[in-house]
Amino acid sequence: MRKVAQIFRNAREEGRNYLLEPEAKTICREYGIPVTKFKVAKNVDEAAKFAEEIGYPVVLKIVSPDVIHKFDVGGVILDLNSAQEVKDAYKKILENVKKHKTDTKIIGILVQEMAPQSTEVIVGATKDPQFGPALMFGLGGIFVEVLKDVTFRIAPITRQDAQEMVTEVKAYPILKGYRGQPSVDIDAIVDILLKTSRLVMDHLEIKELDLNPIMVYKKGAKTVDARIILE
Ligand code: ADP
Ligand code: MG
User: pTM, whole model, 2 decimals?
Assistant: First the structure.
């Protein structure tokens, strides 16, 4: 947990109220929340080397304190399958990001494991001034954005609370499996909710946390993007 404290301290010292994806994912990992394998590259050769180590296909993403929504500025390139593709994507991301804003500060390029497509869920936390941290759960994409099919609980939550959160969203039948589709790993979601609860209770300086999306499989789950905003 010393690693976690160090990340919060670093951000504060640099006057940042926003953790970079690799920082947020390191914290998640320390709490046992499953995340995609990742490494931060500083040049094209390093990116290709890390891609080999992680295994193809990989995803490349911008790491910058100036970019919160990475996809919107062309800062995410998915499904790269060779060293050459990785090198080209590395350059393309820098080009895209600079086109958007010429003086964007670049820390590096995140090379990460590409998680196979599956059912996407979201786990979030926000801090209520009166009640403290609250947890949110829903299915990804249109379920949260259009249908607002989400559920909340004040932290800390129990295993039973977490189980209720998962079963009470309207889209629950999708998780349970329908028309012969297999059920996804509900216990893996419950586990992530419990660990997120512990994380936000331990660190009351977290104003907002977003694990969006988390891919959930027949067995296990994987967080693909993590965002943490500090007070
Ligand atoms: P943003 O900062 O714009 O939210 P994300 O890191 O969430 O960027 O990437 C945008 C989208 O790309 C994600 O919502 C997801 O659909 C896809 N994606 C990102 N990383 C991965 C990954 N490692 N594996 C599979 N899909 C990914
Ligand atoms: Mg995202």
Answer: 0.95
